[in-house]
Design a protein that fits this description.
CATH architecture of chain B: Orthogonal Bundle
Largest sheet of chain B: none
Number of strands of chain B: 0
Strand content of chain B: under 5%
CATH class of chain B: Mainly Alpha
CATH topology of the largest domain in chain A: Rossmann fold
Number of strands of chain A: 12
Oligomer: heterodimer
Order of helices and strands of chain A: EEEHEEHEHHHHEHEHEEHHHEEH
Helix content of chain A: 25-40%
Distance between the termini of chain B: 20 Å
Strand content of chain A: 15-25%
Radius of gyration of chain B: 23 Å
CATH architecture of the largest domain in chain A: 3-Layer(aba) Sandwich
Helix content of chain B: over 70%
Chain lengths: 335, 301
């Protein structure tokens, strides 16, 4: 493996002030992303995946606070930077794509002006140059008749086109890292594939790293190099995408995989689901957060939270008390 | 691309989109909002009369002619004459000029004050918002007219005082409306997106917040013009407006208009109708303008 990762998150803890007191949204998360690599963070709503992403850019808002941990990007500790310095990084070296292309664009500005905005902010470019560059960027994200579209307002574009504009904005300053927070959730399935394909291709060309936040395991399989599965604010399993698919080691991951409908499944067969609901983050159980829903739960699970540990192959970690043999046996049992 | 929206009917090249917008704005106003266009035209007419009142007025404002007192409208005096034989048309024109000056200045000031308070209070929220809004609350507990009467009777009547007081009064009250709009705009994803590209706060305010509350601000401005004209008339009616002998619509209504209403109804009708028409026209115009200026309200086809 090459020396220093581009982004190194270690021991990140984030909590939010709410009416019911402090809620720990992210608990001791550590992640590494190398240049050119695509990391997928998978989890259901409220699992802390978006919060992790937002804390990288320090966009948590007033209620959120990072309690512990370090986020080192390209040798700089982002959490220690002054506001001005973090602003200089946002949109320049780290760009973010949000999940709602419908509302992520300012309705009263033309898309040309919006794509030109990061260039003007970070490169101090004169209007004309930035506008020209915006045209090139729209072309790169394959918007037909890009130059003619610069003067369009967001409402004149379809959802897929708007997400392309967002990608163009994100690429404007050639960032080293792009964080895409569920970039395709609001789009049609066919458009989803196009957008992800495009995102992947453009990041590969630029050798940028990509963090893909999603709840769609199908997306992960096709586009990610590594996967981190989050549950109730913690990473429960992380592995190279291939290894994760070959041998999911955490009961939660296995549950997720089992509940993907299969195209050759029997008609009328019930889709397996994970019983119960994600735990209330304000009242987490003392042991494993998944204990209440886990089919393999035993005494230790309810008492002590499991730590991330090597599971089988190198680079494959999981947080589960179930010992490796038993896990293997459980897999056998199911299939 | 599968999702290419009929590229054929897209707008012409972007160069100078502002110019293109301005060119078509009048056309679109006439086509899509005929009533607003009429309102705008009427308002422009009043504005024109106000600006050129000195030239247009057939007689001197305070030129008396006791031989022609309380004359009904005729060709030589289209709006008749008052109890001192002064030409009512000339006085209406000069009064209109005063009203335009006062209302534009005061409404302008009010809009700036509203925008400043509303944007700061709404965008920064938290304690800033709390403190500012309690101040606004306290201010708003006093009825407008009472505040006006108290302040004017302390500083004395005069155009600068009236502009300042009306500007502050409507500015502070209107800040609520702007604040509400800012709070909702702030929660939009594009504000977060702007933060994520590293835009400094002033940039976000200027490029993302203010343009998106403009529809509200435009309506606020136009309705304030109407309101200021009315309030100034009300003050003049109470004798606290622009001091005589300057002809204002309000003082014409309250003075000669009321006293001689039965002998010469035109004395009340002329300023009364002028007020009504100009205020209505500007409100209609403001509404139409807001609809047109907001790209979201444009048909997507």
């Amino acid at each position: 493996m090459d020396p220093a990762p581009l982004l190194d998150i270690s021991g990140l803890c984030v909590s939010f002030r709410t009416d019911r007191g402090l809620v720990r949204a992210v608990q001791d998360v550590s992640l590494q992303v190398r240049a050119g690599e695509t990391l997928a963070i998978v989890g259901e709503s409220g699992s802390g995946k978006s919060v992790t992403a937002l804390s990288i850019l320090r966009l948590l808002g007033e209620a959120g606070r990072v309690d512990a941990g370090r986020i080192v990007f390209d040798g700089e500790d982002l959490l220690a930077l002054e506001d001005r310095a973090i602003r200089a990084i946002r949109g320049d070296r780290i760009a973010m794509i949000f999940q709602e292309p419908m509302s992520s664009l300012n309705p009263v500005l033309t898309i040309g002006m919006q794509v030109a905005e990061p260039i003007r902010l970070h490169r101090n470019a004169p209007w004309k140059d930035a506008y020209e560059r915006a045209g090139e960027l729209l072309e790169r994200v394959r918007i037909p008749d890009a130059a003619g579209r610069l003067g369009d307002y967001p409402h004149q574009l379809s959802g897929g086109m708007r997400q392309r504009v967002m990608i163009a904005m994100a690429l404007a300053c050639r960032p080293r890292l792009i964080i895409a927070d569920e970039p395709t959730t609001a789009l049609d399935v066919t458009v989803q594939a196009q957008i992800l394909e495009l995102l992947k291709e453009l990041t590969r060309q630029a050798n940028s790293a990509l963090i893909l936040i999603t709840h769609d395991l199908g997306v992960v399989a096709r586009y990610a190099d590594r996967v981190a599965v989050m549950y109730a604010g913690s990473i429960v399993e992380t592995a190279p995408a291939r290894a994760l698919y070959a041998a999911p080691a955490h009961p939660y991951t296995r549950g997720l995989m089992a509940s993907i409908p299969s195209i050759d499944g029997a008609i009328g067969a019930r889709l397996p689901t994970i019983d119960g609901q994600p735990p209330d983050l304000a009242r987490l159980p003392p042991g494993c957060a998944f204990a209440l829903r886990c089919p393999h739960v035993f005494e230790t699970c309810r008492a002590t939270p499991p730590a991330l540990m090597e599971a089988g192959t190198a680079g494959h970690l999981r947080a589960c008390h179930l010992d490796a043999d038993a896990a293997g046996a459980a897999v056998q049992e199911r299939t | 691309m599968s999702e290419a929206i009929a590229a054929a009917d897209m707008a012409p090249p972007a160069a100078g989109f502002g110019e293109a917008m301005r060119r078509s704005l009048v056309g679109r106003l006439v086509r899509e909002k005929p009533l607003a266009a009429v309102g705008g035209a009427v308002f422009l007419l009043f504005l024109f009369c106000g600006v050129f009142a000195d030239v247009l007025a057939p007689y001197g404002v305070n030129e008396t002619n006791l031989a022609q007192r309380l004359e009904a409208p005729s060709w030589s005096h289209p709006f008749g004459t008052d109890h001192l034989g002064r030409d009512v048309l000339s006085r209406i024109l000069m009064g209109g000029q005063l009203s335009m000056v006062v209302s534009f200045l005061a409404a302008g000031l009010a809009t700036v004050v509203s925008l400043a308070i509303g944007v700061v209070s709404g965008y920064f929220g938290g304690k800033t918002d709390m403190v500012m809004q309690r101040g606004v609350d306290a201010w708003m507990t006093f009825p407008d007219l009472v505040l006006l009467i108290v302040i004017i009777s302390v500083v004395g009547p005069g155009i600068p005082q009236i502009v300042l007081v009306l500007g502050l009064l409507y500015g502070i009250a209107g800040s609520r409306i702007v604040r509400g709009a800012v709070v909702s705009v702030k929660e939009n994803m594009y504000t977060h997106a702007a933060q994520s590209i590293g835009a400094p706060t002033w940039h976000i305010l200027r490029r993302h917040i203010v343009p998106n509350v403009m529809p509200v601000v435009i309506v606020l401005f136009t309705t304030r013009i109407g309101a200021v004209i009315l309030t100034e008339a009300g003050l003049s009616f109470l004798g606290l407006g622009v001091p005589p002998p300057a002809p204002t619509w309000g003082s014409m209504l309250s003075g000669t208009g009321r006293t001689y209403m039965y002998l010469g109804p035109w004395l009340a009708l002329a300023p009364g109708l002028s007020l009504t028409i100009v205020v209505y026209a500007i409100n209609v115009y403001g509404d139409g303008l807001r609809d047109l200026l907001d790209p979201r309200m444009r048909g997507t086809q």
